[in-house]
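Technical note accompanying the year-one report. For the benefit of new consortium partners, we illustrate the data format agreed upon in the data management plan: each record pairs a sequence with a structure-token string. No post-processing was applied to the example shown here.
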Amino acid sequence: MPFRVFIIEDDPEYAALLRLQLRKLEDAEVRHFRQGEAALEHLDEAPDLVFLDIVMPGQGGVETLRQIKARAPRLPVVMVSGQTNVDVALEAMRLGAADYVTKGHDDTVKVRVIASRAAERAEMVREIEHLRELLPARQGLENVIGESAPMARVFKLVQKTLRGDLTVAIQGESGTGKELIAQAIHYNSPRRRGPFVVVNCAAIPRELMESEFFGHEKGSFTGAHARKIGKFEQAHGGTLFLDEIGEMSLDLQSKLLRALQNREIQRVGGNETIRFDARILCATNRDIREMVQEGGFREDLYYRLFQFPIQLPPLREREQDVLLLAEHFRRAFTQQHPDIEARPFSSAVRRLLVVYQWPGNVRELKNAVERALLISETPELIPPDLLLEVQVTISRPADVIPSPQEVSEALPSPVAALEAAGDLDDIVPLEEVKQRAALQAYRLCGGNIEKTASKLGVARSTVYRLLSKAERLT
């Protein structure tokens, strides 16, 4: 499919310049509109990128941006202006603009960089959609949401697991969605008509785990009042998912290995050998290789279970997916509970969702969104509704907050920063110094967010955050 770009620009010369840059991209299909209203009429053509002039006759760029985001919230829109205006840039970022460029030579070159990245993203999104077609939306898969590069790799691996019956080991931090991936593999495999049986090894007392796995005969131990069919037998013809395998005792690991090697079991207290046919999937949030080295996990069982490992990325490495997931959880929760108002996310909440590091991963994000919808009393969801503000300053990694050394590079000197703030005898809060540094660097870089972030040595999200707080200083 072609890479579709809309240029909404009343200056035909600059529009021609943009076209010239965009034609250097392979398969680029560019459409030019002189007014925002005309472009909105063609939004159903699903462009992959929009360059939008801020000042135009008729409907202005900011209002056009607002309407684009209302109809296509995930469509990247780059605002274009003939002059650097911090206030307008911040307003555009609040409304969801992907970037901001000025009509100069440097930013014309930057256009190619922005478009190239958008083209890569569009190709990735199409590839994920293709993989979703190969993996129809059955139980579990509809909640495996993501358009980031790490999730694209996960989708590819899941698709490959469907070709055989290998044992798949799903690794990842707590809350990353390991069971959803296991469900996706089962319900899109030839075994989908069979049962999907889950054993949470961390939730079963160790003395009862063997009975849970293999079943028991009546009278085999105190309390065994009747025969019990174990999980292996229950999963016959389907899939057995062993969650939290790192919690198994070494004794049970030995019996599990024997069962997997021979494809047969015996119930506790029984003599009958029972054959089983089930695919084994497992998951863990622990480093099993490290457990093997420390003697806490059998090496031979490790190689038996980890035939096809899949590593799930933590949410902090999926920045591109955070707002996508948050919006999914917001809609799903309000659809399940029609009496709860579907309040939208405020711009401040959107920034917070992206900046926060989510130590509890997707599960924590889901809980935060649902809790915010329950307790909010404002027209939009605001940061206090998420109950995350105190944790943000604690959990954000060092590379997101500029160090004092990084901040000083953007200022003439510490003394100059203090002079700009007021009396030299006053002590200026460090956070305010950072905000001023970001604002000054942004101006020196000609309003180029990416260049500002590069010069400061911080993430773009940090620049947005500092600039939004620096408004009161201007």
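Partners are asked to follow this layout when depositing records. Residues 105-134 form the longest helix (30 residues).
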